[in-house]
Amino acid sequence: xxxxxxxxxxxxxxxxxxxxxxxxxxxxxxxxxxxxxxxxxxxxxxxxxxxxxxxxxxxxxxxxxxxxxxxxxxxxxxxxxxxxxxxxxxxxxxxxxxxxxxxxxxxxxxxxxxxxxxxxxxxxxxxxxxxxxxxxxxxxxxxxxxxxxxxxxxxxxxxxxxxxxxxxxxxxxxxxxxxxxxxxxxxxxxxxx
Length: 193
What we know:
about 190 residues, alpha+beta, Structural Genomics Hypothetical 15.5 Kd Protein In mrcA-pckA Intergenic Region, Chain A, about 45% helix, globular
């Protein structure tokens, strides 16, 4: 299994996700005009970077979405938001999606009381997500979790509790992130298929 391990700040700056004060070396350059293909490619790369998904997984998710007849951009984002590593991040158990992925990989996360160590596990409605007892004994983890929850945004498709939370169902269109133009991503893959 592979993932991106390069410089994350540089990627964030490239996609416009980093604040301008994040780096003093960032130069104010006039952006060049991009072709339609380049714009679609950049949106696809941005979506993959945000969720930490590699190309093969993204193609699989897009293929599944194309089989449905609903609102395709919303369905793709709902699928990505339903991944276990993303739900761990949204519940405030980790500060970043990468940290959430590591918690899942190391077996610290329980789904319905059973250890699940697959970050791409898609949660179903009503499933509970919690940290295991060993992790809950660490005071550093508990303070980090409390700080993450205070700093983060509460989502309507999650029910929060002391040790984790419950996945109530697919997030509404208003709860989905708006920083990526998912229609361009789907257009990119439609031309590839």
